[in-house]
Design a protein that fits this description.
The chain has 277 residues and is an all-alpha fold. The chain has two domains: 1-116, Alpha Horseshoe (Serine Threonine Protein Phosphatase 5, Tetratricopeptide repeat), CATH 1.25.40; 168-277, Tetratricopeptide repeat domain (Serine Threonine Protein Phosphatase 5, Tetratricopeptide repeat). The chain has helices spanning 6-18, 23-26, 35-45, 49-62, 67-79, 83-96, 101-114, 118-131, 136-149, 152-165, 170-182, 186-199, 204-216, 220-233, 237-276.
Amino acid sequence: MEIVGVRAWLAILAVLAGIGFSSAAASDTALLSDQRWEQARKDLAKGKAAEAKAEFESLLNRYPNEADLQLFLGMALLRLRDPRAAEAAVRKAIALNPQHVDARTFLAWIELEVRGDVDAAISEYQKIIELHPELPDAYSNLAVAQKRKGELDRAVANLNRALERKPNFASALTTRGGILAEQDKWAEARRDFEAALKLDPRDDGALYGLAQARRESRDYAGAQSALSELISRSPNFVYWLEWGRIGLIRYWWALLSAAIALALRGRFKKARLEPNG
């Protein structure tokens, strides 16, 4: 199994946060009034995974039937680079509460990003939609898995459903734009990237997609401008390479245009001189 790094950990938190459910609020028991529960979650949010793990395990001795505790224990275990134990914990959470949306979302993320089992992830996301068809993030997450499988049309259809439920869903616009780009629908992709950037100007994925869309429409100056902004945010070598490649294309077109202009000018002069000959 893969080792989960910081970027992946942030992605997990983003996925869970996007569901729109508070796991803490799901527990209608004495756990909510236990100060150790709040402290454990704070420690996990601060990156103190070992401390959080010990606190969640201690709480489980007191509240063994709390699905939320198993879920958060799983998150702590994944942060500690133990994906097998994390998966086991989240499956216990689902066994305790089969309708636990956050737990199913976390399990689907593990299936997709850690185990690489796209079909299992799709199955989990579909179960979430069955439980809560009103949640836009559930459709967006399903679309990401379907895109990974190569089911692009299905992914776009689910992103459309997500955007019907949440029109200002910037990440869904970016994802749909990326799929449309893969399908060579660059004009539509560009509209999605531009719309996403209006909602979230810091969306690097949308900005990179916009750079590619501008390149495809031969707006090389605009493409380089977008890439320059990306480079200012992050010294990613890929952005530098793309910026340089587009620069070469721009100057090649300039040289070609100049050569064509000179050739046409020469032929025009020759055409004017020939009748006088």
